[in-house]
Design a protein that fits this description.
33% of the residues lie in helices and 25% in strands. The protein has 11 helices and 20 strands. Strands 13, 15, 16, 17 and 18 form a 5-stranded antiparallel β-sheet that branches. Strands 5-6-4-14 form a 4-stranded mixed β-sheet. Strands 2-7-3 form a 3-stranded antiparallel β-sheet. A hairpin with a 5-residue loop joins β15 and β16. The protein has 2 domains: 156 residues, FAD/NAD(P)-binding domain (3-Layer(bba) Sandwich); 132 residues, D-Amino Acid Oxidase, Chain A, domain 2 (2-Layer Sandwich), CATH 3.30.9. α1 packs parallel to α6, α1 packs across α11 and α3 crosses α11. The chain is α+β, with helices and mostly antiparallel strands and 393 residues long. The mean pLDDT is 93.
Length: 393
């Protein structure tokens, strides 16, 4: 298994759950598990509202949220069903809000309903809007805790987690696959990869198609000043723009009591570019040479420019938040963390929205696992291992 993020760990755990005598090792290039998307996301347990009915995302999210909460109950991992409101502030957003209700109902999201401005004040006294979609089943958790629990299960089942083992090459041999890593050579009968931000490059080592390719988008957060936490009770989200795959700047309670404000969505200049000044010229050259990225940039330059300006201007960032919580002030926003999202992009410039699994020379790859992959991780593990077993794994 290549990749010790939450999806890779969930797949490894599921393999050992079904095949407890399997000799299994999880390899990761970092010094610890969950160092990238798993350890840098907002911690929301999504209910499944946004996703196209019938898609892998929709099926996996609704079932995954229920399984994840049950897992947290069993392992005594702290989580909260704090709920969520998706707020419309303008009349033109109301049709999209109703579409989200219909989509969520089609996906089986529990207890969704539209509330008016008065009821919104009861749910979120400091928020403003003309209507909102209320999702009481949306929750929050620290996904690092979940990943550590998955890792514990793997080790208890005699699996190994080998950090500081970056995969440099894969060599097919009659007796299996030889993985050349920074920590030495490892022979495996079967290989599964969940490379996250490097998913396309790991797959490419096996001769898999170049597309879809990963383009990194950074999201920066502010943290709400501690004495102003009372302004936010639950997750407060905007009505999303259907032209763009990200959900917009929102307000998110954290399991440790913090309130995260954000994120924006700007092109990262490195696959692990968590800061504006983090630049990898090799990553940039690869993006510049990719026709799909150039088409995407040409079609979305205006949105990209707006996001970049908001990233550089705290005033613009604050204005986006004040649309939903007008009482927020400049001094309430404390610089916070950043995350980088691995977004798969096709060669025609389209953002790949659903989960993508592929096979190359008997090696199974997770090529795209964007949000809500963490929420869906247990179900993704089950789906992936079903396919793995069909291949004779």
């Amino acid at each position: 298994m290549v990749g010790a993020g939450i999806v890779g760990l969930a797949v490894a755990r599921e393999i050992l759950r079904r095949q407890p005598h399997t000799r299994l090792a999880v390899l990761d290039k970092e010094s610890d598990i969950a160092q990238h998307q798993t350890g840098h996301n907002s911690g929301v347990i999504h209910s499944g509202i946004y996703y196209k009915p019938g898609s892998v995302k929709a099926k996996a999210c609704v079932a995954g949220a229920a399984q994840l909460m049950q897992f947290c109950d069993e392992r005594e991992i702290p989580y909260q069903r704090c709920g969520k409101v998706i707020i419309a502030t303008e009349e033109e957003e109301l049709p999209r809000l109703n579409d989200l209700l219909e989509r969520g109902n089609a996906n089986g999201c529990p207890d969704l309903r539209i509330i008016d401005a008065d009821e919104l004040k009861e749910v979120e006294p400091h928020a403003t809007g003309i209507k909102a979609l209320l999702s009481p089943n949306t929750g929050i958790v620290d996904y690092r805790d979940v990943a550590r629990a998955y890792a514990s299960d793997i080790r208890k089942s005699s699996g190994q987690i080998l950090t500081n083992h970056e995969v440099l090459a894969l060599h097919q041999r009659p007796e299996g696959t030889i993985l050349e890593t920074s920590g030495g050579y490892i022979q495996a009968k079967r290989v599964v990869t969940c490379g996250g931000l490097w998913a396309d490059r790991v797959a490419r080592l096996t001769g898999a198609p170049l597309e879809p390719r990963i383009v990194p988008f950074r999201g920066d957060y502010y943290i709400l000043r501690h004495d102003r936490r009372h302004l936010v009770r639950s997750n407060i989200y905007p009505v999303p723009d259907p032209r763009f795959p990200f959900l917009g700047v929102h307000l998110t309670p954290r399991i440790d009591g913090d309130i995260w404000l954000g994120p924006n969505a700007v092109l990262a200049f490195a696959r692990d570019g968590y800061r504006f000044r983090d630049v990898n010229f090799g990553d940039l050259r690869e993006m510049a040479g990719f026709t799909g990225f150039l088409k995407f940039a040409r079609n979305n330059w205006r949105t990209g420019a707006d996001e970049m300006l908001r990233d550089l201007s705290k005033k613009r960032f604050l204005a986006s938040l004040q649309r939903y919580v007008p009482e927020l002030r400049m001094e309430d926003l404390v610089p916070g963390p950043s995350g980088v999202r691995a977004q798969a992009l096709s060669d025609d410039g389209q953002l790949v929205d659903d989960f993508i699994f592929s096979e190359s020379d008997g090696i199974l790859h997770v090529r795209n696992a964007p949000s809500p992959a963490a929420t869906s991780s247990l179900v993704i593990g089950q789906m992936f291992v079903d396919r793995f077993e069909e291949m004779g794994g």
